[in-house]
Structure formats: structure tokens, C-alpha cells
Amino acid sequence: MAPWILFWDIDGTLLSTARAGVRALEAAAREAYGIDVDLDALPTGGLTDGEIAAAIAAEAGLEASDESVARFLDAYGRALPAALHTRQGTVLPSVREILEDLAGDERVVSLLLTGNTRPGAAAKLAHYGLDDLLGDGAFCADARPRAEIARQALALARERVGDLDLDRAFVIGDTPHDIACADAIGVRTLAVATGTYDAAALERAGAWRVLEELPPPERFRQLVGIG
Asked: pTM here?
């Protein structure tokens, strides 16, 4: 029997940095682009770090070249660990309990599918004590669309387990961008309104199921069909 494959978003789904990540992005803009930017005025929910780098460059009238985006992402990776200590973020409801419950189940493969860079994801998971429960997956490396990260995640899952049953594969996320990712690789989205989008917006975007927040482990298993 094919395993269940769960692709997890990070920000707004697993945890909230209480905008500490935004402060690190602003610091990266100063270092990499030499500009001050107020990201509270720029919609970033669901964008990859690379897309944010390109959007900031465009906002400042700069060219979002591969080199400039890479410079920005490198600066962001250096700024993030310290920035995480400046805000009182949190692991979101039921996340730790679900991941701990699934960790011992050999029928379940949990992978990250995130717009964070690999170093950024590692810093956030370590800061909030989730790094022993999740770590591998697909990450942002440049300004390519999020759907490319989704395809990488699907390829990684196939490397891990061989043939997949896409009816047993889910993206768990909190934005319409996560839903679009799931659509791009032919899997369903379990969307949670714990980020910047409310339940109505996630329903309009076509999520398979929308919840106000992740439920306790037993209910989560029931939702995705893990007996």
C-alpha cells in the first residue's frame, strides 16, 4: 500500500515568527540593495523568499537579476537567526502534537514544501524546536515560481517511496499560493486560516478542506484518511 505524503508549508502553517522574518528581509534589503523598505506595506504572504527579493528590487526600480536575488537571499540567511530572537513567535495549534504523532508511523512521509530557503527553514524550525520532526523537503533557491518548488517536492517524494498514490498526498498550507502549488502537482490542499488569509479566501482559492486551525492528531488522521 502506498504511503501518505504530507507536504508542509512553514510560515502561517507550522509557526508564526511574529514578523521577525520580515525584519530580517528588511535588513537584507539594506545590505543587498542599499535601500530601506517597509514590508508591512508590501503583500508577502505566500510568496517565496526569492519572489520577495525580486518584488523588493522591482519596488526600488532595481533589476532583479539572478545575482542580486542570490545576494539578497544570502544576506537574509545571515540576518534571520538573530531576528528570530527579537519577537515572541509561536508554534501554531496542534502542530507539534500532529508531527510527533506521525513521526513514528512508517506509513507517513512528511516533507517541507516551503518558500523559505533551506537555511531560512532550518533556522525557523530550530528556533521553535521542530527541527527533530521535520527537515527535508523542497525549498526556495531563487526567484522561480513556487510551483517549481512543488515539483521538486513531488520528485523528492518519488525518490523516497517510488510510485505515489496522489490521492494520499496533501499540501498543508495557509495561502492561495499553497493551493496553487497543490494544483500544479495534482494533489489536494488542507488549508488552515492561521496565516494572513481567512477561511473564505482559502475556500474561494479551491482548497480541498479549510480549517480555522489544525485539529488534534486523531482528527487530523481522520481528515487525510490515515487509519
From this structure: 0.95
